[in-house]
Fold each of these.
Amino acid sequence: MSPRGESVVVWIRRLWEVEVIRFGLVGMANTLIAYSLFAALQLTLGTILHYTIVQAFSNVIATVQAYCFQRWFVFRHHGGWWAGLARFAVVYAGAFIFSLAMVALLVEVFGANVLAAGAVTLVIQALGTYLANRWFTFRRNVGAAQPPTSGDTQERTTTPSR
């Protein structure tokens, strides 16, 4: 491999070590997987199940998948699995309610275009879920309500729950 090629590999590895970049990349992958799952289930089960049931079912699976990816790749967390999943579900339920309210506010009160309102909401929601996951879902000390004090590249760990 050429020296230039090595520098690109080093640059990519350094980028991967930045937690917020991992969050964005993993979030894009999660979104693609979630939509693909919904589409596959709709195409296969949509003739016998209402689309809202398909959507709910695919959302549950996609939430567990997203939790695993966020836990392992983004936050590198080693704490209680079920408690973390419960906190993750709370964060994403709150994000969903926020997005419904924010889009409605921007469209109905401020007269924004629906697609523009959705895009603005998506950016705010992504930042909010990153912070909520970092400080709530995957926090270092489950008993403490403070943000982690370590840098982005250090592993976050908690005592395993039983």
Note: The two ends are 47 Å apart (CA to CA).
Amino acid sequence: AGGFGTKLNQEDAAFTGMIPGVLKKNVIHAGNAALSGACMLLFDDELRKKVQTLSRNVKNINLAQEDSFQESYIRSLNFPEIF
């Protein structure tokens, strides 16, 4: 979703490990979905409860601190003369 997600290439995202390779064919670009999601949570009590339950199991991963991501990202850049 958003500007980043709209331009995201699912093949590249799978190659770098951003998403599991088995999911790359299931990527759907949602555009700017923040407002729609906020409205859904504002008006749907049951959905809000589900999201609150799910949010307790979320793990934040700071990609800037993951050496393996940095290496994959750099390898995926289009600088063939360097590699």
Note: The mean pLDDT is 83.
